[in-house]
Design goal:
By secondary structure, the chain is mainly alpha-helical. The chain is built from six helices and five strands, in the order ααββαβαββαα.
Length: 193
Amino acid sequence: MPLTDEAMLRVAGVTGGRAGAWHLELGRVLAGAVLVDLARGGRIAVHAGRVSVLAPAPGAGPVGDAVQGEALDRLARGRRPLTVAACVERLAPSTFPAVERSLVDRGELVWLRGPLGGRGRLLPRDGHRGDPALRPALRELLRAARPAWEPAPDGPGGADPAGAWPAADPVAVVSRAVASCVAVLHSRVMCGF
């Protein structure tokens, strides 16, 4: 399962199905998660704080995930490599609704109707455990936006088994960009400009 899906399912669960109330912050987390997914899939390179779209490897097919494919297309249309933060901001508005729609269509997120028959809340289906291999990256991205969203550490004594991320690792670079984008967002909202 892509990191974008894991992040959305985690936040939907933690917020009691009200992830949409956090769409600005969550959009930036999901945009960061799609960048990490694309970097791990060899479709983009994150180097020195910039994102470059890579030519597909010989024999590589299309990106298997629709959200990643749309994000890759948007990044490839750029004229020059962008900073990671600029990529997060460019992808954030479209990533949240695309991930939500994808998870609803697959039955991973289900509507819990409101008492008056309204739209209600959007919750993860029963039994979703999450991918343990994605948990360290998920923790890092969610901590960047809102520490209350991050899952508990798996390791003994509350430590992550993966330890600290190297500074040049895409997860670390993207997480710093997400934190920066969320801080700017909060500043704009609070200051009104």
